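Folding follows sequence. Below is one example:
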Amino acid sequence: MIHRNKIFIIFLIFDFCIACAFIIYFVKFRNDGGKTYNQPEVAVMGIIEHDGQIPEPVRKLKMHFSKPSGQIATTVRSEGAIANVRPRLEEKLKNFGLQWAVPVYIYLEKDEKKLHLDVFDQNKGYFVPFKTYPILKMSGTLGPKTKEGDRQCPEGFYYITTQSLNPASKFHLSFDIGYPNNYDRQKGHTGSYIMVHGSDKSIGCFAMGDAAIEEIYAMITAGLSSSQKIVRIHCYPFTMTDENLSKHSDSNYLPFWKNLMQGYDFYQQTRLAPNVEVVDGVFFFNDKW
C-alpha cells in the first residue's frame, strides 16, 4: 500500500512540473520577451481573424529572428509573396533615395476607403507619402468599434508588432492592428483580432486584396526586421478636416473625432508619427518614442 502511494505521489509531482513548464512557456511566448506594449498580441500558433469568430491555426512555420523585435513567423506563401513584390518596391524606394527595410507608418481613412503607407526618409528626418491603397471591403458605418460582434471597424490609434503578423492567413496574408488599445479598454470596449488582410471580403476587418496586402505586408515585415520595433497604424473615420467634421456636427461621436483630429493634425504638420498616450479617456500626443 505504501509503495503504491509513493508511485501515486511521484506521478502527481511529475504532472505538476509539466503543467508549470507549459504555463511558463506560454506566458513568455505571449509577452514577446516581456515587451507587451500594453496591447494584446497574437500568438502565431493560434491566430483568430474576423472579430474573434474564425479560428485559423498557423501551419508549418519557420521562425526568423530580428534583434529589435523578436520572432517573425514566415511560411512558403509569405516568403514567396515578399520575393515577388520586393524588386518593384525597392525600385520605388530608390526613387526616394531610400533602401529596403525603412520604417513605415500607416493610416486609414474609412469613408474614403483608403490606406496610406508612408516611409521614413532618413535624409529629411520625417515620413513621406509612399503609396495609397484602396480598401476593397469593410463593414459597419462611421464610428468606433465598441463591442464584439458589432461588425464595426475600429477608429483610433493602434500598432503592429512581429507577433501581429499572420503569414498563413485564410485571407492570403494578414496582420492584427492591435484592437483593443488602452483607450478601448478604459471605455469597456470588447472584441479582438481585427485584421488587415487580403481577399475582397471582410466582416469587421479591412480587406485590401491579395496584390495590395503582399506589398503592405512586405514593407511592414522589412521595417520590423530592421530597426523598427512597432509599426503605428492609425484609423480615422474620414480625412480629418474642419469641413468633414462640420458635415457630422450632429453625430454623437463628434467629441471623439475632434480628439482623433488632434493626432491627425500632429502627423500632417510634423510628418512624424505621434506617440499616443491616454489619460482619463482622452488621447494626448507627443514625439516621445
